[in-house]
User: What shape does this take?
Amino acid sequence: MRTPRSDTASVDTCSPAKAGVQEAKPEAPFGASGPRPLPGHTPERTCILTRRKGTKEELIRLALGPDGSIAPDVRACAPGRGAWVGVGRADLDAANATGKLKAALQRAFKANSIEVPADLGERTTRALRQGTLDRLGMEARSGKLINGFDKVESAARSGQVHLLIHAADAGDDGRSKLDQALRVGGRPDAHEPQGMIFPEGRTILSMALGRENVVHIALTDPAAASRVRHALARWRTFTGPDRGLEGGGPALGAGSAEAVLTPKIVTKE
Assistant: This one.
């Protein structure tokens, strides 16, 4: 079985070799002629700003276009060369404003003619947001996502819900009742004791799912729930502690993304 090449700067699911290019490689513990990753080994990349290591899911890829422009590639599938960052938006914006980000990219790509857009942080936020909405839409079309208060409540009480999500503008009463139903149907593998609050309201959720008045949604498949949970976690960690699901998420770093997948329990007095 063919084993993909691994290095700390980039190992993409979309092979750059097929596009006739190679990734920027600040470090390469598994070089072309060196040892291959052991079975079960998860290749790591290195953040060009902090030098901390992380997996593809924990870091964000920045792609270099043919014209020297930099663009966020949150799915890590864009053709061409790429480098990785593992910081939140505030740190990325600061590094961009001071020129630290451009200098790091020039070193990674060994090129001087690089253009970094001033709104790279905002573009990355929009890309992560859209990626999360797209993921919800795909799970809905596959039949692994349900909505509607009665349907969600019934599934939650019967222990079929692996992830419960409330729109940002959902009423407190509806949220409380469904959270209670989730606890009643409690699963031994449950990640959250209550539903997550989505960073957008019902209008955006309805558009993403192609359905009307989507206020509460539930993932009834464990793999689908994991995919949505991870997409939400990436969005949350990048936007920082004051944004996203319940707030309080740390910036992206070398640690596991699992640390931010579970929302904080907020007690309202």
Notes: The chain has two domains: 16-118, 124-260. The chain has a mean pLDDT of 80.
